[in-house]
């Protein structure tokens, strides 16, 4: 695997971990990022699938910022859950 493939794969995995830690669903991530639910699903498809898409770093950072803002972040009724202990 090339360095760029590793980095994009790690972005996908980092997003998955953020979602698990904060109880976010794919629909939440779609709303927070402005991407369609179908695109978000592609981020979690198998890398061998034709549906697979890589998560770009700015997308990952925008989700991280939304989580950091926590309860102060209000986007059409999407409340960022508190981290699971």
Quick structural gist:
By secondary structure, this protein is mainly alpha-helical.
Structural descriptors:
4 helices; mainly alpha; 434 Repressor (Amino-terminal Domain); about 80 residues; disordered N terminus
What CATH calls the topology is: 434 Repressor (Amino-terminal Domain)
- Taking the alpha carbons of the first and last residues, their distance comes to 34 Å
Arithmetic mean pLDDT: 81
Give a count of the beta strands, DSSP E runs of length 2 or more: 0
Strand content: under 5%
CATH class: Mainly Alpha
In total, how many domains does the architecture comprise?
1
Helices and strands, in N-to-C order?
A: HHHH
Biggest sheet features: none
Counting DSSP H or I runs of 4 or more residues, the number of helices is 4
- 3D shape: globular
Low-confidence stretches: 1-6
For the CA atoms, what is the radius of gyration?
13 Å
> Which secondary-structure class do the elements indicate?
mainly alpha
State the CATH architecture. Answer: Orthogonal Bundle
GO molecular function, one term: DNA binding
Organism: Vreelandella salicampi
InterPro entries: Cro/C1-type_HTH, Lambda_DNA-bd_dom_sf
Protein name: Helix-turn-helix domain-containing protein
Question: How would you describe what is shown here?
Answer:
The chain is mostly helical. It has a single domain (3-72), classed as Orthogonal Bundle (434 Repressor (Amino-terminal Domain)), CATH 1.10.260. It has 4 helices and no strands. It has helices at 3-22, 26-33, 37-43, 57-69. The longest helix has 20 residues, at 3-22. Residues 1-6 have low confidence and may be disordered. This is Helix-turn-helix domain-containing protein. GO terms for molecular function: DNA binding.
